[in-house]
Amino acid sequence: MVYRTFKFFLLQAIAITFEDFVIYIAKGFLRRWRVELKPGRADETWAEAVVRVVGYCWVTIWICLTLPVWLDELSSIGVGSLDRGAITRFLLDTWQQRA
Q1: Contacts 24+ apart (CB under 8 A), 17-20
Q2: Per-residue pLDDT tens over the stretch 34-51
Q3: In the 3-class helix/strand/coil scheme, how is the chain assigned residue by residue?
Q4: 20-38: per-residue pLDDT in tens?
Q5: Does the predicted TM-score (pTM) go above 0.70?
Q6: Domain ranges of the chain
Q7: Are 80 and 71 in contact (CB under 8 A)?
Q8: What separation in angstroms does the CA of 11 have from each of 15, 68, 70?
Q9: Rounded Cα gap, residues 83 and 30, in angstroms
């Protein structure tokens, strides 16, 4: 039972490491084009807006892909036995076929 919960949180750590690597590479490319990101400023440049949108999309996709791993663990012990909809069922079935 604990395996899937451990797997979920380990996947989060892997994703954060991957994000840091991608950010490091992207900053190098942006410096070559003389685009400098200054987070926290009131006036957002086009590059900052693109980075923000890509970041939000990445987080949404990653949570949609990994959350069923944890929810499956919780539902196997009886927590949240409600129907979570067609998308979550599809993702859970996909994860169960891989395991």
Answers
A1: 19/58
A2: 877 766 665 677 777 888
A3: CHHHHHHHHHHHHHHHHHHHHHHHHHHHHHHHCCCCCCCCCCCCCHHHHHHHHHHHHHHHHHHHHHHHHHHHHHHHCCCCCCCCCHHHHHHHHHHHHHC
A4: 999 889 888 888 888 777 6
A5: no
A6: 2-98
A7: yes
A8: 6, 12, 11
A9: 45
